């Protein structure tokens, strides 16, 4: 779905969602995603209030999106999701930006850069026992690159699982 598509989620540099917005997966009408307001914002500064207000326990799978660094807010959400024994995936976005902004004379090749990012996430979440296979590096502008396809497969796999 393109950003300009009427079915696309709102995207902005400021908070855009105040309520959960549901989107049906285009190729499977039995699967839907909910775009939730951000946690750790003026509207939802407290995790417990956020959790109760949005009734997050009703969701089957959590997609936890991160850009740049793993934050305390990310870790709190991961810990909460793990405490209720729900499936989740850690999704590091804007990988295209990372690859484009690396210094031209940098020694890191793209593959090394991706490994460094993934290793950072693994190290940052180690105390929460996050599985490496549940970490995905993506760019919404390049859905055919990096881990986007693997992410879709993982989501569909969990959706088919009798445990969810």
Automatic annotation (TrEMBL):
Family: Belongs to the TRAFAC class dynamin-like GTPase superfamily. IRG family.
Keyword Cell inner membrane: no
Organism (species): Paramuricea clavata
InterPro entries: G_IRG_dom (IPR030385), Immunity-related_GTPase-like (IPR007743), IRG (IPR051515), P-loop_NTPase (IPR027417)
Name by which UniProt lists this protein: Interferon-inducible GTPase 5-like
Keyword list, A-Z: GTP-binding, Hydrolase, Nucleotide-binding
Cellular component terms (Gene Ontology): membrane
Cited PROSITE patterns: G_IRG
Gene Ontology MF term list: GTP binding; hydrolase activity
